[in-house]
Amino acid sequence: MKRLLLVEDEAIIAFDLAEQLATAGFENVSIATSLAAGLAQCDACDVAVIDVNLGRGQTSEPIAAKLTTMGRPFVVVTGYGVDQLPDVFTTAPVLRKPLNFPLLVRELNRL
């Protein structure tokens, strides 16, 4: 089973999404609610779902860069338009908020 890292700064959203992912068959989901936690958990994942804006003026850009360097696929979740994202995010599938969960599952299974 692939190890999935979920990076989302809103804890309630993160836990809800992790529960939905578990119901969809993703059994090994870890949650990071901050930039530091996300960076620390990159090595322990096979695939990731990362929110762009992590609050407190931080973005997940360093996480995306690290995952890219490691060759780990990820899905980007954001309320921003694709044209507003730094280049490091545009190499991955980008899903807009509010999140279409079936589309997220399809993208994760594809990766």
Number of helices: 4
Q: pLDDT under 50 segments (min length 5)?
A: none
- Strand segment count: 5
Rounded mean pLDDT is 94
List descriptors.
five-stranded parallel beta sheet; 111 residues; alpha/beta; 36% helix; single chain; 19% strand
Structure description:
By secondary structure, the chain is of the alpha/beta class. The protein has a five-stranded parallel beta sheet, with helices on both faces. The longest helix is centred in the N-terminal third of the chain and has 13 residues. It is globular, with a radius of gyration of 12 Å.
List the topology elements.
Blueprint lengths: L3 E4 L3 H13 L5 E4 L2 H7 L5 E5 L9 H10 L3 E5 L15 E3 L4 H10 L1
Parallel strand pairs: 1-2, 1-3, 3-4, 4-5
Compact description:
With 111 residues, the protein is an alpha/beta fold.
